[in-house]
Write a structure and sequence with these properties.
Elements: E1 6-11, E2 14-19, H1 30-45, E3 51-56, E4 61-63, H2 68-72, H3 76-81, H4 86-94, E5 100-104, E6 107-109, H5 111-118, E7 121-125, E8 129-131, H6 145-153, H7 155-164, E9 168-169, H8 170-175, E10 181-183, H9 188-200, H10 204-219, H11 222-236, H12 240-250
Parallel strand pairs: 2-3, 3-5, 4-6, 5-7, 6-8, 7-10
Antiparallel strand pairs: 1-2, 8-9
Bound molecules: acetoacetyl-coenzyme A.
GO biological process, one term: fatty acid beta-oxidation
Catalytic activity: a (3S)-3-hydroxyacyl-CoA = a (2E)-enoyl-CoA + H2O; a 4-saturated-(3S)-3-hydroxyacyl-CoA = a (3E)-enoyl-CoA + H2O
InterPro entries: ClpP/crotonase-like_dom_sf, Enoyl-CoA_hyd/isom_CS, Enoyl-CoA_hydra/iso, Enoyl-CoA_hydra_C
Length: 260
């Protein structure tokens, strides 16, 4: 299926999704959201696809935020009635059980930074810039910036960024734990797809379960999280892929996964 605001292609077991409004620095309007919801639902439902990569078209921006022009004249009652921004989290985080990687190529500001932080892994290009500049618009983050950024980089830096709108470059983002690695812009998508392919080649049930376990660390106490981790481990021991994985290790051969 073709979309107006995003591009979608499959590279083997990896779905590559590209935000495609470069003339607006890939600003996130409601049409982009609807396209993304559909593309992520198809990725999730397609058993041949194991991991997705989300990036932005052009060399300048991953996404420069929620679309300010769309929000400018919107009445407050509408924001509230629609529970504005809630659909991003519910579709891209809660219902997407397979992992996806944000390949951040340039500005990731406001909703762009928040969208990247919804991903399971962020890889940044050397020119990437992260920021929560909403304060300069008289508002604040609305898609998780005050929460996910604080958990990722700590209170002091997150507070500084939310209170001043200061942007953080790629090197500082890696040092602060926001991104897993920084690569040259020219290699960004290939590196992200390579990592995604590596994940997609793992036993599929274990991938989903490991993602759930890591995410639980954000939601639970240590004790609850450790219990959940053990239960996930124990459930995975009932899968055919566990028999295959351990058997393959003992027989010194690569495992062949069934996703069962
Ligand atoms: N919404 C709508 N349009 C946007 C946009 C956005 N968030 N960001 C950039 N654009 C548009 C610009 O209006 C411009 O369009 P025109 O050519 O039609 O004027 C085009 O993209 C190019 O942008 P600039 O000319 O501004 O490019 P620049 O290189 O001079 O500056 C920038 C780049 C610093 C990223 C600047 O565009 C900018 O500050 N953008 C806004 C960033 C921002 O405030 N983001 C937060 C949005 S609110 C939000 O996201 C809420 C939330 O928590 C979910």
């Amino acid at each position: 299926m073709s979309y107006e605001n995003i591009l979608v292609e499959q590279r083997g077991a990896v779905t590559l999704i590209t935000l495609n409004r470069p003339q607006a620095l890939n600003a996130l309007n409601s049409l982009v959201l609807e396209d993304l919801i559909d593309a992520f639902a198809k990725f999730e439902a397609d058993a041949s696809q194991g991991c997705a990569v989300l990036t932005g078209a052009g060399e300048k921006a991953f996404a420069a935020g929620a679309d300010i022009k769309e929000m400018f004249e919107k009445p407050a009652a509408e924001f509230f009635a629609q529970d504005f921004f809630s659909r991003w989290t519910s579709h891209l985080v809660k219902t997407t059980r397979k992992p996806w990687i944000a390949a951040v190529n340039g500005f990731a500001l406001g909703g762009g930074c928040e969208l990247a932080m919804m991903a399971d892994i962020i890889i940044a290009s050397e020119n990437a810039k992260f920021g929560q500049p909403e304060i300069k618009l008289g508002v604040g983050p609305g898609m998780g910036g005050s929460q996910r950024l604080t958990r990722a980089i700590g209170k002091s830096k997150a507070m500084e960024m939310c209170l001043t709108g200061r942007m953080m470059g790629a090197e500082e983002a890696e040092r602060s734990g926001l991104v897993s690695r920084v690569v040259p812009l020219a290699n960004l998508v290939d590196e992200a797809v390579k990592l995604a392919a590596e994940i997609a080649a793992m036993p599929p049930l274990a991938v989903i379960a490991n993602k759930e376990a890591v995410n639980a660390a954000y939601e639970m106490t240590l004790e609850q999280g450790l219990i959940m981790e053990r239960r996930i481990f124990q459930v995975l021991t009932a899968t055919e892929d566990k028999v295959e994985g351990m058997g393959a290790f003992i027989e010194k051969r690569p495992g062949v996964w069934k996703g069962k």
